[in-house]
Specification:
Helix content is about 0%, strand content about 40%. The chain has about 55 residues and is mainly beta. About 0% of the residues are buried.
Amino acid sequence: MEKFKNEDLTAGPTSFDATLHVNVSRPMAVLKITDGKDAFVEYRAAVKPTFPTK
């Protein structure tokens, strides 16, 4: 996946590197599950992602 540099994927341009295999700036869908059925609630994006330090 480290070879992904702005790959044109369904979710939008996607890049990865050796330490990060998730797009932390892309909005994520919040779903609610009631009686076994899921429903879209809203999109949320990370305002300021934090990463553990070594």
